[in-house]
Write a structure and sequence with these properties.
alpha+beta; Nucleoside Triphosphate Pyrophosphohydrolase; 7-stranded mixed sheet; 6-stranded mixed sheet
Length: about 550
Amino acid sequence: MMTTTEWLSDDDSDGFYEPKKPKRNRNRRKAAKQTLTLSSKPSTSDDIIREKLNNHRLPNRICKIFSNLKCERDVMKVLKGIQDEEDRYWQSTDKQICSRQEIIQHFQLVKHADFEQENGKQILNYLQNPILQKRQYGILLFNFEKQIFVVQNHDGTWNAPKSYRKIDENYQLETIIETASRGFNEQIRARNQLTDEIECYDQQLDLHKYIEHEFIGLFISEFDTPIIEFELINTRENRQMCQWISIDDIINPTSSEHFDAYHTLRPFAQHIFDFHFQQRPMENEIKTFENNLDNTTKVEASNFNRIILTPLSIRDEIFDSAQSTIEFDNDRNQMLNESFVANYVPQIIDAFNLSSKLPKDHMNIAEYRKCIMQRLHVPYYKKPYANSMFPIEKVRQIYRQPKKISILPLLIVAQQKRVHLQTYDIISERNSLRKIAMNNENYVIGVTRVGQTLFLRRHDNRFVNKNDVGSRFEQMCRPDYHLDAEFKLLIESCIGNLKILFTGETDVIHKDTNQPMELKSRLNTIEINQPNDRWLQAFLSNFTKFN
C-alpha cells in the first residue's frame, strides 16, 4: 500500500550520521548549557516532510561501515571517490549494463589510495551493498489527457526519470529534492517547440505531492505546457525511448505477455488516477466547480485546492457551430460588412480590480480571491493638459507574469454574479480571442471542454513594465487611480451563433457617459503600429479608442 509522503522504516534511511562524542572528563568543570539545538522535533507534519526531503545527512548504516572515520566529511570524501571511480568505469566501457560484481572486480584492480589503508576493505564492503543506490528519486509528470511521461529501462521496464542520491563537489549529500531534479534533467532534455531552443525544465516540486512505494520516491507534478517537448539524452540507465503513456493502459494492461513492463509504475499511476481523474459525471462539473469556489476553506483544509477540469475530445458539432467564423476567415471581404459588425453587441456584466502581482499557481483559488479587490475602484478619465509632463518613473514597476496565465479571475467574478457558465460556448480572456483572430504570431492556447463549453487559456511568459510610455500615459489620464492593479470588465457577446464570455482590461471610464475607453500612445510617427490589432481590441469590448 502506498501513501502520500510515506515514511521509510528500515535501517537504510531512519537515522543519520552523528560524529563520535568526546569522552567526558569528570575533573573538569561542568560545561555551560548548550544554547544551540542540533536537532529538534518538528512541530508539524509539514516540518517533518520538509526535513525528510531537504536533509543532507548520511544514513546510519553507512557510518557503521566506515566506523574508523572520525567525522562525516571524511566519510563523504571516501564516498565521493567511490562515486567518481564508478562513473569513470561506466564511461570507459561500452556496456549498457554492468553488474555489481563487475564493478567490485574493477575496484579490486584499481590502485586507489584508500585501498592501502583500512578503508580499502570497508570500500569493498560498501560496494557489496551500496546503500545510497538502493533508493531512487525522480519526477513523474502527468497531463490532463490522462497520460504520464516515462522512460524505458534496458530491461524493458517503464518508469519515471529518476536517480539515486550523490555526493556533490563540496562533499555534501544531495537532498531528495535535489536528486529528483538532477535525475530528471540529466536524462531528459526539454525543447521549446516555438523557438526550437533547448532549455532546462524548471519544475517546482511540491512536498505534498511526494509519494514513495518500495524503493522509489517520486514527486507527482502536473504538466500543462504543451509548448515543451521532451527527448532522452542519457542512455546509461535507459533505452533510447521516452514517451507519454496512457494511465489506463498502465493500470489495466491488455498485453498477454508474461513480463509486466509497468509493475514499478502502476502504484503511482493508480495514485494519479484516484486523486486527479476520479471525477463525477460531466453534467455536474460546472456545478461542482462553482460549489468549490463557494467553499474555499474546505478545499484548503484538504490540501487539494485544485479544481480539475477533465479534458475531453471536442466533438464535430462544436466546430460546426463556428461556421460563420470559418466563412469569415475564408472570405473576409464578404463577411466584414455592416451587418456582421452591427450584430456584434457586447454587454458588460461586471467590473473588478485585479492586482498586478498574481500568484504563481494558476489554479490556487484562495490566492486569486485575494487578488480581486472587494471594493471597486474605477479609473475615471481626465483629459491631460497640453504639454503635460509624463509621470516620473517608479522603482519596482516591472512584473513578471506567471508562466501559466489563469482564467480563475473570470470564473470567480462570474460565480459571484451567479452567471451560469454552461450557457456559453466559449469562455476566455480577450487576449486569446485577439491572438486567434489575428493569427500573425506564434502562440499557444490550451483548450478544455466541460460539457458544451470551451475554456481557453493562453500560455505566456512575459514582463509587464509599468514604466513604459504607454503605461505612464495611462497614469496621466487617470491621476486618481493609485492602485497597483488592473481594471477589468466581464463581458458577454456573440460571434455568429457562438455565445462568448470573456474579460478584458480597460484603461479608463468616461465619467459623464460611463463609456469604457482604450488609451493608446505613439511617438512622433505618422503610421499607427499594428492598426488591425488595435481596432480588434477596441471592437471586441466596444471601446472608444484614442491614439
